[in-house]
Amino acid sequence: MSSQSRNKFLATLDGHVEATPPVWLMRQAGRYLPEYRELRAKAPSFLDFCYDPKLASEATVQPIERFGFDAAILFSDILVVPDALGQNVRFETGEGPRLTPIANAADLKALRESADQSKMARVYEAVEIVRSRLPAEVALIGFCGAPWTVATYMVAGQGTSDQAPTRRFAYEQPEVFQALIDRLVTVSIEHLVQQLKAGAQAVQIFDSWAGVLPIAEFERWCLAPVLAIAKGVRAQIPHAKIIAFPRGSGVNLPRFEANQDIHALGLDTSIDPAWAAAHIDRQLVVQGNLDPLALLAGGRGLDEAIDRILTAFADRAHIFNLGHGILPPTPIAHVEHLLRRIRGG
Ligand code: CP3
Fold it and tell me: Is the CB of 79 under 6 A from ligand 1?
């Protein structure tokens, strides 16, 4: 690698401590960007947009061209997996996803065993286009939803605040729920492997709803499936770099340490960076964890929050990010300010 094409994000995932951390933002391609809103208007539905290699690749590259982040994340959605398994998935404008709920063993049986490759091939084509457009110093991240988080949408048929329908399903029909989780583990391994083969250099597993489960269920439905995916991906692609983002895991975060397959842990907004620096093994790279609302609000509170994160992780491998996705009303000037403050100058 020449010094000019040095990839700071990948070096950090390898454990190098950089003078200033690499930075990308969850949901960095999205509605806060006017160019995204313009592009999004070209597809009839959100899923059509995700499955259009030209539009999806363009949306992925937009925030890199505007801000020069150190990594791009593929523009897609975690719910392409249930869609490609044959579940009915729609996105209602302003209301979020709507799926035909999985209520029992018969509904699960009606789904495909593996994802429809005529749909997924278009996602991997987007990955190829993006990789060919990005300079070598910008990394490309692929992703999937963790089985628990994807299952919450598949069972409830929509987002809920406490995932009560899916928690209840898991208690009442544990064998059926286990079969659903196992199906998602298998399909997610395949989905991540294909993204890596198409040009993604790291993958992130989003477990956005890991925080709602008691400990035994956390171990069974979050920790075990995420580790199984990481292991399965690395069995096929030994050099694959894997970031886990178990949002809301709190003091259970160190449970991700005892394996060799997870390289980085995404920290959500609630984690004190000083606690994470003291309690998460230095072998694990940390990523996060600015409050998206602090970025939206700006001002002195934003600067203090950025500095607290930079100080806590100054002497260890750290990828700067938000603790959850960027919010649509976030001013672009605040993102520019964030980058200046992190990078200096
Ligand atoms: O820039 C990126 O981060 C890449 C693209 C990306 C999207 N969704 C695009 C998107 C990624 C990585 C996701 C992950 C995702 N999708 C998660 C996990 C992360 C998290 O936010 O917790 C979840 C739970 C979903 C499911 C999902 N997709 C919901 C609940 C919604 C509706 C809420 C919303 O923000 O509108 C979506 C839609 C969605 N996915 C949008 C985008 C840009 C907005 C729709 C639009 O622009 O028309």
Answer: yes
**Phi/psi at 136 (5° precision):** -60, -25
Q: What is the pLDDT of residue 94?
A: 81
- Give the residue, out of 27, 160, 268, 335, with the most ligand 1 atoms within 8 A of its beta carbon, to mutate for a pocket test: 27
User: For ligand 1, is residue 120 a contact (CB within 6 Å)?
Assistant: no
What the chain holds in terms of domains, given with CATH numbers, is: 3-343 (3.20.20.210)
Does residue 326 line the site of ligand 1, with CB under 6 A?
Answer: no
DSSP lists the bridge partners of residue 264 as: 243, 285
Active site amino acids: 27, 31, 40, 77, 153
Compute the distance from residue 267 Cα to the ligand 1 centre, in Å.
18
pLDDT at 345 (0 to 100): 65
Ligand 1 within 6 A of CB of 53: no
Q: Which atom of ligand 1 is nearest to the CA of 74?
A: 4
pTM, 2 dp:
0.97
User: In the prediction, which pLDDT does 1 show?
Assistant: 44
**Mean pLDDT of each 10-residue bin along the chain, 345 residues long:** 75 97 98 98 96 98 98 98 98 91 98 97 98 98 98 98 97 98 98 98 98 97 98 97 97 88 97 97 96 98 98 98 98 98 90
User: Residue 68, by phi and psi: left (phi above 0), alpha (psi -120 to 50) or beta?
Assistant: left
Full 3-state SS string of 268-328: CCCCCHHHHHHHCCCCCEEEEEECHHHHHHCHHHHHHHHHHHHHHCCCCCEEEEECCCCCC
Ligand 1 atom nearest the C-alpha of 145 is 18
